[in-house]
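Running low. Got one?
___
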Amino acid sequence: MTVPTTLTLRTPRFVLSAIGASDIDAIHAACQDPELQQYTTVPVPYTVDEARAFATEYAPQAWRDGAEYVFGIRPEATAPLIGVVSWQRERGFVGYWLDAHHRGRGVMTEALRGLVDWVLHQDGVDLVRWEAYAGNVGSAVAARRAGFRWSGEGPCEITDRQGQHPWGWHATLQRDDLATVQPASDWPVLA
């Protein structure tokens, strides 16, 4: 699979594009949110230096290496990012977070659909995986609405800040499930 060094994806309302130095302040501000900190692996406290390292070192290097494709979610191409959505290619996982002020408006569902549509049209990719720490209802709602099918509960593959594998929720999305919305009743944690 060959992926360009830069790529912009578009959804009806958003632009998904690479992050960089101009996003440091927005990333830092969003990562101060206690709920985001509870359900992600961002360091706590989250400093400006960590935001800088993520935006200017980790994300660009992961992109160049083909390990993870990190996109900023923006209302328009030149707007500040309001969230991040990514695909970890080797493990097949999507990951995402959204600024607290933009939750509950379908932003993440739309951005996630845009990402997985692109991912599942790559050669050799037939399945995308999702997992979240148990209790992360917002993430589960976005995944379900984006077409992911519930696959169960169990230890997360991704470790938490302490290096442990916390209890998590799991789902998958196959190419045939693109543009579907799974019934809430199929997701026991949302029913």
